[in-house]
Specification:
Elements lengths: L8 E4 L3 H9 L4 E4 L13 H16 L8 E10 L2 E3 L5 H11 L3 E11 L4 E12 L4 H9 L20 E5 L2 H5 L3 H11 L8
Parallel strand pairs: 1-2, 1-3
Antiparallel strand pairs: 3-4, 3-5, 5-6, 6-7
Length: 197
């Protein structure tokens, strides 16, 4: 007798990167846009910020999940305790990339998983070091348009990979979802159900 199919996760996100990562992991999922307004206090701790946003996104759709686990994720790029969100325009994107050039920043993601019986919030961090960037490097990256809608103004899974000298931690976290953390949680909380643990 075969095991019942795993209930699809309900992903509280419209991010195509997050959908692609769940597909890559072979996880069944449905997508719903979160009904949650992110409010970033200027002096907020980056880790607490992404954890709170992940929780807020997941909770905003939990009522319609039924028995499905709800997944909320929020990611931030942090340099010297300053959070780099999505750039407002081309000039903002250029300022971000200039600040990150030749330095090490941290990509921190909050992850919230909610079921009818429990709620879990965790986070993971990845250190990313950019090489020194010339004006030509900056111009080429900005011209590609990948900065639009990207925290820190780059996409490591695309042309932004050329900006990176070194990475320490979960690469997929930098793309947009802390996959190693999610797999560990699924293995611990749902052993065998999603093919892990």
């Amino acid at each position: 007798m075969s095991a019942p199919p795993a209930p699809p996760l309900l992903l509280a996100s419209t991010s195509p990167q997050r959908r692609a990562i769940l597909e890559q992991l072979g996880l069944p999922f449905d997508v719903v846009a979160p009904r949650y307004e992110e409010q970033d206090a200027p002096d907020a701790d980056p880790v607490e910020l992404v954890r709170e946003h992940a929780r807020g996104k997941a909770r905003s759709v939990a009522a319609e999940a039924g028995d499905r686990p709800v997944l909320g994720v929020d990611t931030a790029v942090v340099l010297n305790d300053r959070v780099f969100g999505k750039p407002a325009d081309l000039g903002d994107a250029q300022r971000m990339l200039e600040a990150l050039a030749g330095r090490t920043h941290v990509v921190v993601s909050g992850l919230c998983l909610i079921t009818p019986g429990w709620e879990l919030v965790e986070h993971d961090s990845t250190r990313v070091t950019f090489r020194a960037l010339t004006p030509r490097d900056l111009a080429a990256n900005l011209a590609a348009g990948e900065w639009e809608g990207r925290a820190g103004a780059y996409a490591i899974q695309a042309r932004g990979a050329a900006l990176v000298e070194r990475i320490e931690g979960d690469y997929v976290n930098v793309v947009g979802l802390p996959a190693a953390l999610l797999v560990r949680i699924l293995a611990e909380r749902f052993p065998g159900t999603y093919g892990f643990g």
